[in-house]
Amino acid sequence: MENIRRLCESCMETHEVQVVSREEQNIFNGQTVTYEAVYYHCENTDEYYADETMLAENDVAMKNAYRKAKGLLTTDEIIAVRKKYNISQNSLCIVLGWGEKTIHRYEGHQVQDYAHDSILRKINDDPEWFLALLEKARPSLSPNIYSKCRSAGEALYTSWNTDGFIENQPGKAQIMSLVCSHKGVKNNTPASFYYQGKEEERLSALRNLMDTMSISLRQAMEALKIPSSEYEKYAAVM
Ligand SMILES: [Zn+2]
């Protein structure tokens, strides 16, 4: 990989010591894992050895191989979730109600349990949920931290709405467009949840009628006594 001139702890002389990467196999928690470990190699003694930093890195490499084998997020993936929301390790612990060093440990040598792993995945997939948790934790966060995480969460929420939204939740985009058609209603307000429920009910009632009675959308709307001024709106999303 590279050479570093240092006092070699193997032959006790100062020379160019090779830094090498070696495939290593270990058993962790009963699971056999294979990973790349980093060592110094002394050409004089043909010995491999590691300093404190290498030992720590090798330990994380082993834990990450274990995480992968068990279908858990790796340290890099956990860091990526956190960066997405522009939030520090400590603040994320506050938002999640976890002990203050929990995320710090999960981004290193401590393998997270399945329950915590699911929560991190949920945050990764669902900015709306993150924003709800952030709102709850608001009194415990500085205004600065709160607003910077909120902006990040809202930006993700917006792109989530426009990009993967239809794929992720079939029908939800249509419902949101109906919700937004109610004047002055914004996403995530109590009124929007009210209209969301109402529109979901109406759309499924319309679909059921059309299916079971083999009637047209217009006939279904008439049957449900939907005001004719709203026909166009439903026609656009069905
Ligand atoms: Zn040496």
Instruction: Provide the succession of SSEs.
Output: EEEEHHHHHHHHHHHH
Shape by Cα distribution: elongated
Number of helices: 12
Number of DSSP E strands: 4
Sequence stretches where pLDDT stays below 50 over 5 or more residues: none
Largest sheet: 4 strands, antiparallel
- Taking strands numbered 1, 2, ... along the chain, how are they ordered across the largest sheet? 1-2-3-4
* Estimated structural class: alpha+beta
Beta-strand share of residues: 15-25%
Bound small molecules, by name, code or SMILES, are:
zinc ion
User: From the alpha-carbon coordinates, what is the Rg to the nearest angstrom?
Assistant: 27 Å
Q: What is the typical, i.e. mean, pLDDT? A: 89
Distance between the termini: 60 Å
Number of domains: 3
Helical content (DSSP H or I, runs of 4+):
55-70%
What does this structure look like?
The chain has helices at residues 52-69, 75-84, 89-96, 102-106, 114-125, 127-137, 143-162, 165-168, 172-181, 190-213, 217-223, 231-237, and strands at residues 2-7, 14-28, 31-42, 47-49. With 238 residues, the protein is α+β, with helices and mostly antiparallel strands. It has three domains: 2-69, Ubiquitin-like (UB roll) (Roll); 75-163, no CATH class; 172-237, no CATH class. A four-stranded antiparallel β-sheet has the order 1-2-3-4, with helices on one face. Helix 6 packs antiparallel against helix 7. It is elongated. The model has no long low-confidence stretch (mean pLDDT 89). The structure holds zinc ion. The site of zinc ion has 8 residues, from loops.
